[in-house]
Design goal:
Blueprint: H1 2-48, H2 55-74, H3 76-84, H4 88-105, H5 113-141, H6 143-167, E1 171-173, E2 177-181, H7 182-202, H8 213-241, H9 256-260, H10 263-276
Antiparallel strand pairs: 1-2
Helix pairs in contact: 1-2, 1-5, 1-8, 2-4, 2-5, 4-5, 5-6, 5-10, 6-7, 6-8, 7-8, 8-10
Length: 280
C-alpha cells in the first residue's frame, strides 16, 4: 500500500509538471509516453501468449496517431494543410495504418503471419493508440476537464480496490480476475461519483457551467462501470500469458499497461460525451 501511494504521488507530480510547463501539449505528450510504454508491455505479454507482434511497428504507428491528433486538435493541422494546399494531416494516420497492414498481409496471406503478427499489432494500436489519443481532443477542448477525467477514472480504480479489499465477497469474473467483486464495483462507482461531482461543483464551475450535478454523477458512475470492463480485458490477457503485472515500472501499481488499462475504453466514451454533448 505504501509503494502504491508513493507511486501515485510520483505520477501526480509528473502530471502536474507536464501541465504547468507544457499545457495541453505537455499533457498529450505524457499520454503518448504512457501509450508507448503500455504498447511495449502489451507486445511482451502477447509474445508469451504465442503471438509475434513487433513493437517497432506498434510504437511507430501509435506515435503517428498521436502526432496527427495533436496537430488536428491544436489547430496546427489547418495551418499546415493551407501551406501544403491539401488536407494531408487529416488523413495521415488512417491511410498509413490501413495501408501498412494491407500491404504487409500480402507477405504471407495464407500462413500464420497475419493472425500471429498483424492482428495483435492492429488491435494493440487501436487500443493504445486510437483509444488513448482521444485524451488529446479532451485536453485541447479544456485541459482542466482532461485532468478531471483522469481523476474520475482513477477514483473508480481506487474505490474498487479499497471496497473490494474490505467487503468483496461476490466475484464478478473469478476465472479472469479473482479479486474483482460487485462490492468493489459499487465502491468504485461511489468514489468516482463523489470525487467527480465534488471537483466539478467546487473547483471547475466555469468548465461545467450549466451542467446539472446529477448528470455529472451519472457520467462518473457509468465511467466506473466501463473502467471495470476495460480492466477485465487486460486481466484476461495477463491471465492467458500467466503474468500478474504487465511490468514493474511503477512499484505497487505494476507496469504502464496496468496504469492505462482502465483508460482504454473509458477515454473514447468520455471524449464522446464531453465533445459531442455540449456541457459548456
Amino acid at each position: 500500500m505504501v509503494k502504491r501511494t508513493l507511486s501515485s504521488i510520483f505520477l501526480l507530480l509528473i502530471l502536474s509538471c507536464s501541465i504547468y510547463f507544457g499545457k495541453a501539449f505537455g499533457f498529450s505528450a505524457l499520454i503518448l509516453i504512457l501509450a508507448l510504454l503500455a504498447s511495449y508491455e502489451a507486445c511482451q505479454i502477447e509474445k508469451k501468449c504465442g503471438l509475434a507482434p513487433r513493437f517497432w511497428v506498434v510504437g511507430s504507428l501509435v506515435a503517428i496517431i498521436f502526432v496527427e491528433k495533436i496537430l488536428q486538435a491544436s489547430g496546427l493541422n489547418y495551418n499546415l494543410s493551407a501551406i501544403l494546399s491539401v488536407p494531408l494531416f487529416c488523413v495521415l494516420s488512417p491511410v498509413i495504418l490501413f495501408g501498412f497492414f494491407a500491404v504487409a498481409a500480402l507477405k504471407s496471406p495464407y500462413g500464420d503471419y497475419p493472425i500471429k503478427t498483424l492482428v495483435p499489432e492492429f488491435l494493440t494500436i487501436m487500443a493504445l493508440g486510437y483509444m488513448l489519443s482521444y485524451f488529446t481532443d479532451i485536453a485541447f477542448f479544456d485541459l482542466k476537464i482532461a485532468v478531471w477525467a483522469i481523476l474520475v477514472i482513477k477514483f473508480s480504480d481506487i474505490g474498487g480496490y479499497l471496497f473490494g479489499s474490505w467487503f468483496g465477497i461476490n466475484k464478478i469474473a473469478p476465472s479472469i480476475s479473482p479479486k474483482k467483486s460487485y462490492e468493489g464495483l459499487l465502491g468504485g462507482m461511489f468514489l468516482s461519483c463523489a470525487g467527480g461531482m465534488a471537483i466539478a461543483h467546487y473547483l471547475l464551475k466555469e468548465s461545467f457551467k450549466g451542467t446539472p450535478v446529477w448528470i455529472i454523477g451519472a457520467l462518473c458512475a457509468f465511467i466506473a462501470v466501463v473502467a471495470l470492463l476495460s480492466d477485465l480485458v487486460e486481466s484476461a490477457l495477463k491471465r492467458k500469458a500467466g503474468v500478474k503485472d504487465s511490468g514493474s515500472t511503477l512499484p505497487g501499481i505494476g507496469g504502464a499497461l496496468d496504469l492505462a488499462d482502465s483508460l482504454i475504453l473509458t477515454t473514447p466514451v468520455m471524449a464522446f460525451v464531453l465533445l459531442y454533448i455540449p456541457i459548456k
